[in-house]
Amino acid sequence: MSDENDFDLRPDQWETLKALRGPITQLHAPARLALGDLVSLGLVSVDGRLPAITEKGRKALVRGSFSLLDAAA
Predict the structure, then answer these.
(1) Host H or E run for residue 42
(2) pTM of the model
(3) CA–CA separation, 16 vs 4, rounded Å?
(4) Which of 24, 31, 59, 69 is the most buried (most CB within 10 A)?
């Protein structure tokens, strides 16, 4: 079963998405590289120079968190 909110993200992409939940002061190099991928997937938007997680990104993050918990069980 496939869902439009199911994303097979790399670990650096997941970490970047998680980092965007709070206030951003600085992104490290791997996060900046992953940011472009997340923007193209519609999970992150860039307003001016500041990235922000989108509603779609929040849903993917929550859904991914539950998937990771299921895999660990």
Answers:
(1) none
(2) 0.73
(3) 20
(4) 31
Confirm if 7 and 64 have CB atoms less than 8 A apart: yes
Domain boundaries, the chain: 11-72
C-alpha 53/C-alpha 37 separation (Å) is 13
**Length of the chain counted residue by residue:** 73
- The C-alpha torsion from 66 through 68 and 69 to 70, rounded to 10°, is 90
Query: Which long-range contacts (C-beta less than 8 Å, at least 24 apart) are formed by 35-40?
Result: 37/13, 38/13
Q: Which of 73, 21, 30 is nearest to 51 (CA)?
A: 21
- Bridge partner list, 47: 50
